Amino acid sequence: MKKAALHNLGCKVNAYESDAMQQLLEEAGYEIVPFTEQADVYIINTCSVTNIADRKSRQMLHRAKKKNPGAVVVAAGCYAQAAVSELKKDLSVDLIIGNNKKKDLVSVLEEYFYQRERGTGEYLIDIGSTREYEPLHIGGTSGNTRAFIKVQDGCNQFCSYCIIPYTRGRVRSRRPKDVEQEVKTLALAGYKEIVLTGIHLSSYGVDFPEEERIRLSELIRRLHSIEGISRIRLGSLEPGIVTEEFANILAGLPKLCPHFHLSLQSGCDETLKRMNRHYTSKEYERRCQILRSFFDNPAITTDVIVGFPGETETEFAQTKAFLERIHFYEMHIFKYSLRSGTRAASMPNQIPESVKTQRSEELLELEKRMSVEYRQSFTGKSKQVLLEEETEIRGRRYMIGHTEEYVKVAVLTETFSSVCQSNTIVQVVPKQMLTEEILL
Q: Which pLDDT value is given to residue 143?
């Protein structure tokens, strides 16, 4: 029996695909071992969102070959799609499998073992021209309470800083029946919560023929009826999808978690234009107002890039003031990282690293304060918590879980001794902040 080890880099979509590849290997008779152990095959599902991600991908490929020089090292995913010419010269890489070819992993490995002396194998397609959604499936994940479900791939937005449309191709949506079947399988396996993910989740369904077209809200409505699933959470959304009609539909679905990650990147209109984002700060703010009018204190989180080319002190100040006004639950703050092959890489007025660091630290301080304030707003309020794992805090045993808003709560085990176990939903009233991140 051959041993295989997998290592995932990048987003939740990549994580889903790594789980699916692992399942394919298990079904083919491979023994899955930790990446730290010796294996016959190492699969690195690479990321290419920044130059740093490219470097990490190369490092993991080299680490695998160093661990076992006789192993087959597979570069899969976005970096494999974007840098095939470099990887063909890399002596650490034996197989290159691009996006939309991961489903063929087992047959590719069989062919390679049969003709091992033939050199580096290359399995890619013109990702920009394909309209086929790659059929990958999972029956479970490494966690036992929450499962991420990939329902969409590709992006048509072409933000000036982003390479993803070139590594993932155009929008391709997964058929609703296929998604429903996978969710039913996960529900039977005991999963209580599903998280819908995609490269550009808001575009779900736009590529279907007119007579078959359904949008994301309809897919959510179908999944809502599946028995055994208690919560449906959404991955990152573009603000444009949030209309009164969309929010009204979702507000009528009790299983839908009021947790919305709305991608922002900047609160300054001039910066947004250079980024080729398709909204203004005023339009974004209106989407947040819609969500807050249909949901009671929803969790709104976002991404922000600091130090984008041309970002002046005035533009940064506008962004900071905007973030404070919206008052997000959480913000993921990223220092702009130059990505070769994008328009932003050749823009004038690149920002010094020291300035990016200073601006990042400033926003991280703001994020910390707003996040604590949002969590504190739930003290004294009855909330449902999905319990996930046990831990010891200050000498006492607690179960850690999350509310529907994804606020972390510690539940004293002795309080719910009969039902205080992983994958159980309990009703609690948080009394105070245990830490800056956890309610008690």
A: 67
